[in-house]
Amino acid sequence: MCKPDKGWNLPLWGLAGAVFAFASFGGAADAADFEIHSAFPRGVAFISDSEERIASLIQEHTHGRLSVRMYNAGEVIAGGDVLTAVQSGKVAAGFGWIGYWAEKVPVAELLGAMPFGPSPATAVSWMYGGDGLTLLQDAFRPQGVQILPCHIVASEAGGWFRKELRSPDDFKGLRMRISGLGGEVLQKMGAMTSAQPLDQMYPAMAQGKLDAAEFSVPMADMSIGFETFAKNYYFPGWHQPSSWNALIINARVWQGLEDMDRKGIETACRLNTLWTLTAQTGSQVAAVEQIRALGVSVRRFPDSVLLALARTSRDLLEEKSKRDPAYGRIYRSLITFMEQEQSWEDLQTLPRRVPRP
């Protein structure tokens, strides 16, 4: 990563601030440039669509006062440097998976991928109907950025495995690519985990250096070619039932915006979150059917495996919560909200096999 600038470099701020030069409100012709630097490369399935929508929605809901341009990873700055660049004022805004920023904001790993965490719908309810947004922004404020959740990620798959899993003991000695908290859980269960980027993951599978790999949702997984090496595709994605991608804006840039434009950006992010929540399920179902057609066995983890994973996940999250008060606040808030939602669903959920009218 690039070394963060120390303090606020005013000459640099003059350059970064130029992208937010305040224009008169005479219309789109007078729009101020608003550059967003994504941590994702160009062309990633669904994410690139989401980025385009965010840009369009911000322009629409600031009534053309901001003219948005999205840069992808490597075009101006490296994807791993987005948070540092926004903090320092080198760039005004960034977009990426919240979990990428866990090195500086440890609780980001919890919001990036909480094992046995909330479903996408429950995560959205907690973020906007509970105290999620306040807790998230409080966690990132010391970093000198304003964070706005803009994209809820669908539940991921559980991973591609060369061999069928029958019991928790099958994780012992298993070489698996899986990152974040999910990787820590599997380490406790005896697996040897690694977190290779995609460009290294496929060769590792091809060379027999991995027994299993987890990457993303089915619509993204199917484009990689994992079925060549692993014929068992497991669900559910216990390690990441939901996740967030977010917009981060330099705090001084955010404070310098007109109130109406701050509200316009917030509205754009909420609308894009709604779109991502509703647009993904159908695509995943279609992708799973295409994966089946390639001769892959689509399976659920055995209940004994899921129970062992859940117990280990709970122990790990409680350990981390005791060490970090901020981590504990968000963890307890999420757990309490999930329990409340579950009590309501227990009353209202119809049996799955009831014939539809």
TrEMBL record:
Amino-acid positions noted as binding Na(+) in the UniProt annotation, renumbered to this chain: F215
Highest taxon listed in the record's lineage: Bacteria
A GO MF term: metal ion binding
Binding of substrate, residues: E156, R177, E214, Q240
InterPro entries: DctP_fam, SBP_TakP-like, TRAP_DctP_sf
Alphabetical keyword list: Metal-binding, Signal
UniProt GO BP: transmembrane transport
Signal peptide range in chain numbering: 1-23
A Gene Ontology cellular-component term: tripartite ATP-independent periplasmic transporter complex
Pfam hit, one: DctP
The keyword Metal-binding is annotated on this UniProt entry: yes
The name this protein goes by in its record: TRAP-type mannitol/chloroaromatic compound transport system substrate-binding protein
Organism: Novispirillum itersonii (Aquaspirillum itersonii)
